[in-house]
Design brief:
The protein is an all-alpha fold. The chain has 14 helices and no strands.
Length: 331
């Protein structure tokens, strides 16, 4: 409880900072004046530009952190991440097709719809390929195939873009950003993010039992197939909605659970809420960083920042796992 409260305070502080930081830095008294309507110009900036961006950072960062914790508990592998089952790649492909074909721009409502459709289609294809009762290793291999196929489709869409401007728009969108998002995007994606998050969180007790192994969980009355299906659908809905609005934001789902796990133990059910709060804090902090770092051209994309931080973290995890494996091998 203490850790969750501390993380919630950190998220609230970062969200407040996110509302104050922009092209013009706003003081707390000015922020209060904006919300009270005393300063109409600042009220427009804060409520129509910064507030949706802040809400999306909390929602997307939280769902990525939760999805990472759920998947790591589901497959019992600390290197698992939301991209495991191909939903983010498929969501990106759906959104890229919409942009590159000229059907809609990067800020159109068609974008999140196409992204979520791609993510849900990938889940359907996953279970169609692997089979309903497939073991987790088959699901993982099928997810790798779907992710690779979606990445190839994204590259093809870029290659066949009708003009350089469409290709450039797609390329910038794929970098991942929360810039220029509105309450319309929040309203469009929040039901899927929250619904998918609740679906994943509802399996907390089952994930605790699954940590004993699938056979032991089944002997204790856990419907392993149902748990797996609900977790994957929850990941697809929430992460697909996130990717369709913000583009590719990697490593949050991998890093957030590892930051909190040493503090809560290795019970997957106890990791879910702290990982959600840690994911929200990480994305808020990364988005603040891109606004504070001065650039001569276009601002740095938040997906670039999370990749620069997350890639070394992932490498450190791989090296730690290799050392742990070497220590268990007979000499």
């Amino acid at each position: 409880m203490g850790l969750n409260l501390l993380l919630a305070v950190i998220v609230a502080a970062l969200a407040l900072a996110s509302l104050m930081v922009g092209a013009t830095v706003t003081s707390p008294p000015a922020l209060l004046a904006a919300f009270s309507g005393a300063d109409e110009r600042l009220a427009l900036i804060v409520t129509e530009i910064r507030l949706p961006r802040t809400l999306l950072a909390v929602l997307i960062g939280g769902c990525l952190g939760l999805a990472g914790a759920v998947l790591q508990g589901l497959v019992r592998n600390p290197l698992a991440s939301p991209s495991l089952f191909g939903a983010p790649s498929a969501a990106a492909l759906g959104a890229v097709i919409v942009i590159s074909s000229g059907v809609a721009g990067a800020l159109s409502f068609a974008l999140p719809v196409a992204g979520m459709a791609g993510a849900l289609a990938s889940v359907g294809a996953l279970f169609l390929i692997a089979g309903r009762g497939a073991p987790i290793i088959v699901l993982l291999l099928a997810g790798v195939v779907l992710s690779s196929f979606a990445a190839a489709g994204t590259s093809l869409a870029l290659n066949l873009a009708p003009n350089p401007f469409a290709a450039l728009e797609v390329a910038f969108w794929l970098l991942g950003s929360l810039e220029d998002r509105s309450f319309q995007h929040v309203a469009m994606t929040a039901p899927f993010i929250v619904g998918g998050g609740l679906l994943m969180a509802s399996q907390a007790k089952a994930l605790r039992v699954l940590s004993l192994g699938e056979e032991a969980a089944q002997s204790l009355g856990v419907a392993v197939r149902r748990v797996r299906l609900l977790c994957v659908i929850g990941v697809a809905a929430s992460v697909g909605a996130s990717v369709s609005v913000a583009g590719t934001i990697g490593f949050i789902g991998l890093v957030a659970p590892h930051l909190v796990r040493p503090l809560v133990g290795y019970d997957p059910s106890r990791t879910l809420l702290p990982a959600t709060l840690a994911g929200a804090a990480l994305l808020l902090a990364a988005d603040l960083l891109v606004r504070l770092v001065p650039t001569s051209g276009s601002p740095i994309k938040v997906g670039v920042v999370t990749a620069l931080i997350g890639a070394p973290f992932f490498l450190a995890l791989v090296l730690r796992e290799r050392r742990a494996l070497a220590g268990r091998l007979p000499s």
